[in-house]
Amino acid sequence: MQEAPLAVQCSDASRRYLGRRPRFKRIVIIVAGLVLACAVVTGVFVFGVGRSTPNGASGPKSTAGVSLADKASIVRLMILAELGDVQSQSDLGDAYYRGEGVPKGAAQAVVWYRKAAVKGSPGGQNGLGNAYYYGQGVPRSAVQAIRWYRQAAEQGFARAQINLGVAYYYGQGVPRSAVQAIRWYRKAADQGYASAQFALGAAYFNGEGVPKDVNEAVVWLRKAAEQGYAVAQCDLGFAYSNGEGVPKDAGQAVGWYRKAAEQGYALAQYDLGAAYSNGEGVPKDSAQAVAWVRKAAEQGDPTAQLALGTAYYNGGGVPKDAVQAVAWFRQAAEQGEVDAEKWLGDAYYNGDGAPKDVPQAVSWYRKAAEQGNSDASAALTRIDAASEKFKNVSTEELLDEKRGANESLRIDEAFLSASSFAGRARIYCRYVFIATPIGTRTLDVLETQYTRIMESEPHTREEEMERQRTLAAWRWMMVGAYKNVEICQSPMANVVPTDEAMRQHSDKTRTLLASIDQELALRKH
Fold it and tell me: How far is Cα 222 from Cα 282, in angstroms, rounded to an integer?
């Protein structure tokens, strides 16, 4: 594996591993997820009438004057709701939705939300809109969700205004319109709601629905950040780090990163780790860098996982450990982190932190190459070139090479490295294998590779034909491995045993061939 950038000593060239990621283009997506997802997870932003302050902290109680955690208050709330008190009906819907003091139940929540909604309660209307949006307790319907959101939003209910803005931003139940989204975000932001202030700041950074204006963006981000809104705190730190809309100030950047990181926000934890890594706004500290990056990585952040993997690979801030490095690379790669896919390919190709496995390396290189990673593309080209070099070598030369190479049959790396069926077939056409004493390990390798080819999924008819030829070749190599006999290959890549080998087939070999033939027959059907 080539030298990886240090996870705790990042130069400008390596900041993609432990530096700052571009963010503001996706900032509105973040707020959409936070605002709407909170409806499902906690109900903080969109459920509950007067139950939270703009930043989601505990706020004024409902006009029913009850605490949903108080059992006696729940009884009182039920009585008031049954008597027709609109606020209590809306609050009881919240209680059923979240399972606070009553069994959790979306259907019951909808009953009480609807009673409040038809009487004009904005909290009930917003709650019913969310039920339709997520299909909880009622069939999912974006159109019905928008109907109820709008009624609540037009009464000035900030959480409904945010939800309506998100709907316009994504075109869910209404025509997509950034201008309309900003209109509704602004109404909620003017009421002091941090999530809306954050969304408005994002819009100014991106120039979506409003002219691009980083200074105005920072104004709104600061409003949200000062209320403790972690995402806004992190992005205000980014603004200070890069001098966007504010003077560049690494100390201020770290201060805001820390506030968000201490709330558990993964991206801020990563950014704080990067600051310690680079000595920006804080003294360089490899141990602190790794500690904060690890917090983000353990929350599943793929860029942090990649950074932690490079730290283990290079021994930066942690003991050098290639196995641990590969474990973190894998977690990042499985989320589509392109550089992690490439590093994982390197690990398998070189047997560094993982068993040497060229087909696995090719698989990860291909994933990275498909995302535009030029190093992975170059690796695939080199692997194919390794197989091509045998194309014009004579059978006699190959035979001599094999006789002198080893006392036991050795599968040439180029043979296993070919990244396509066609590449493997070309090599089969050129090889003659000499099986002087062959160990169990050789047989294991043959059987493992045979299984992989059996499980592969060709995409074209030509690839399927190559696959069948490959399987035919591998069958007879296994026969030869069992019997220690010479295996010859015809120009059509169909390997056939010598007459002597045919006469000397053991019971074990015949059993193997029968099982292979049976498996092939099953796969054809």
Answer: 22
Q: Find the radius of gyration of the CA atoms of the chain.
A: 32
Please work out, in degrees rounded to the nearest 5, the angle formed at the alpha carbon of residue 486 by the alpha carbons of 483 and 492: 120
Number of other CB atoms surrounding residue 249 within 10 Å: 15
- ∠ CA 368-371-376, nearest 5°, is 35
Domains in the chain, start-ordered, CATH in brackets?
A: 12-231 (1.25.40.10), 321-385 (1.25.40.10), 391-524 (no CATH)
At 161, which amino acid appears?
Answer: Q
d(CA 113, CA 130): 10
Residue 377 φ/ψ, nearest 5 degrees: -60, -40
Note the pLDDT tens digit of each residue in 446-502.
555 555 656 666 666 766 666 666 666 555 555 444 443 333 332 223 333 333 443
* Cα separations in angstroms, 189 against 173, 196, 450: 23, 5, 62
Residue with the larger pLDDT of the pair 264 and 30: 264
Q: Which structure tokens are listed for 267?
A: 């991206």
| Lookup: tokens for 298 | 């353990």
Yes or no: say if 124 and 113 are a contact pair by the CB < 8 Å rule: yes
Distance of alpha carbon 497 from alpha carbon 33, whole angstroms: 63
Q: Look up residue 191 and give its amino acid.
A: Q
Q: How far is CA 65 from CA 50, 51, 56, 247, in A?
A: 11, 11, 19, 47
What does pTM read for this prediction?
0.67
The CA distance from 380 to 363, in Å, is 10
DSSP label of 352 = S
CA distance 106 to 323: 46
What is the spatial distance between Cα 474 and Cα 476, in angstroms, rounded to a whole number? 5
Distance CA 317, CA 304 (A): 14
